[in-house]
Amino acid sequence: MGRPPSKFVTDPGNALKPERKREDFFTRAELVALEQSWLQNNSGAGKEAFYRWYAETYFGIAPPKIGRDEMERVRQLFRDAKVRARKEGWLEG
Hints:
Shape: globular
Helix content: 40-55%
Protein backbone atom coordinates (compact mmCIF):
# COMPACT_ATOMS: atom_id res chain seq x y z
CA MET A 1 0.00 0.00 0.00
CA GLY A 2 2.99 2.29 -0.18
CA ARG A 3 4.92 4.28 2.32
CA PRO A 4 3.52 4.98 5.78
CA PRO A 5 1.55 8.24 6.04
CA SER A 6 4.23 10.04 8.04
CA LYS A 7 6.51 9.93 4.99
CA PHE A 8 4.07 12.17 3.07
CA VAL A 9 4.42 15.20 5.29
CA THR A 10 7.15 17.58 6.41
CA ASP A 11 8.02 17.34 10.09
CA PRO A 12 6.68 20.40 11.96
CA GLY A 13 10.20 21.30 13.11
CA ASN A 14 11.30 21.64 9.49
CA ALA A 15 8.20 23.43 8.22
CA LEU A 16 9.56 26.91 8.90
CA LYS A 17 12.97 26.19 7.41
CA PRO A 18 12.68 26.74 3.64
CA GLU A 19 15.80 24.69 3.01
CA ARG A 20 14.34 21.69 4.88
CA LYS A 21 10.64 21.81 3.90
CA ARG A 22 9.73 19.79 0.85
CA GLU A 23 7.60 22.01 -1.34
CA ASP A 24 5.53 19.10 -2.62
CA PHE A 25 4.65 17.95 0.90
CA PHE A 26 2.30 19.49 3.47
CA THR A 27 2.90 19.82 7.18
CA ARG A 28 0.43 17.90 9.33
CA ALA A 29 -1.23 21.15 10.38
CA GLU A 30 -1.64 22.10 6.72
CA LEU A 31 -3.26 18.73 5.97
CA VAL A 32 -5.83 19.22 8.71
CA ALA A 33 -6.63 22.74 7.49
CA LEU A 34 -6.84 21.53 3.88
CA GLU A 35 -9.37 18.85 4.79
CA GLN A 36 -11.49 21.21 6.90
CA SER A 37 -11.47 23.87 4.19
CA TRP A 38 -12.40 21.43 1.42
CA LEU A 39 -15.26 19.94 3.44
CA GLN A 40 -16.62 23.42 4.26
CA ASN A 41 -16.49 24.50 0.61
CA ASN A 42 -18.03 21.24 -0.62
CA SER A 43 -20.71 20.70 1.99
CA GLY A 44 -22.58 17.49 1.52
CA ALA A 45 -19.80 15.87 -0.50
CA GLY A 46 -18.48 13.76 2.37
CA LYS A 47 -15.05 12.52 3.32
CA GLU A 48 -14.90 9.83 0.66
CA ALA A 49 -15.25 12.50 -2.04
CA PHE A 50 -12.47 14.48 -0.36
CA TYR A 51 -10.18 11.43 -0.23
CA ARG A 52 -10.84 10.76 -3.92
CA TRP A 53 -10.10 14.40 -4.79
CA TYR A 54 -6.88 14.32 -2.75
CA ALA A 55 -5.70 11.05 -4.33
CA GLU A 56 -6.34 12.46 -7.79
CA THR A 57 -4.86 15.90 -7.12
CA TYR A 58 -1.80 15.11 -5.01
CA PHE A 59 -1.01 11.45 -5.73
CA GLY A 60 -1.77 11.85 -9.44
CA ILE A 61 -4.02 8.79 -9.60
CA ALA A 62 -6.61 8.78 -12.38
CA PRO A 63 -10.19 8.65 -10.98
CA PRO A 64 -11.01 5.22 -12.46
CA LYS A 65 -7.90 3.80 -10.79
CA ILE A 66 -8.67 5.09 -7.29
CA GLY A 67 -9.57 1.93 -5.45
CA ARG A 68 -9.98 0.78 -1.88
CA ASP A 69 -6.22 0.71 -1.21
CA GLU A 70 -5.69 4.29 -2.39
CA MET A 71 -8.67 5.51 -0.38
CA GLU A 72 -7.32 3.79 2.73
CA ARG A 73 -3.88 5.30 2.14
CA VAL A 74 -5.36 8.81 2.07
CA ARG A 75 -7.64 8.11 5.04
CA GLN A 76 -4.65 6.92 7.11
CA LEU A 77 -2.65 9.98 6.08
CA PHE A 78 -5.32 12.33 7.39
CA ARG A 79 -6.04 10.24 10.50
CA ASP A 80 -2.34 10.37 11.36
CA ALA A 81 -2.25 14.13 10.74
CA LYS A 82 -5.21 14.73 13.07
CA VAL A 83 -3.83 12.53 15.85
CA ARG A 84 -0.47 14.29 15.75
CA ALA A 85 -2.07 17.73 15.45
CA ARG A 86 -4.15 17.05 18.58
CA LYS A 87 -1.06 15.88 20.48
CA GLU A 88 0.74 19.08 19.51
CA GLY A 89 -2.24 21.20 20.59
CA TRP A 90 -3.15 22.40 17.10
CA LEU A 91 -6.72 21.10 17.42
CA GLU A 92 -9.22 21.23 20.22
CA GLY A 93 -10.94 18.04 21.28
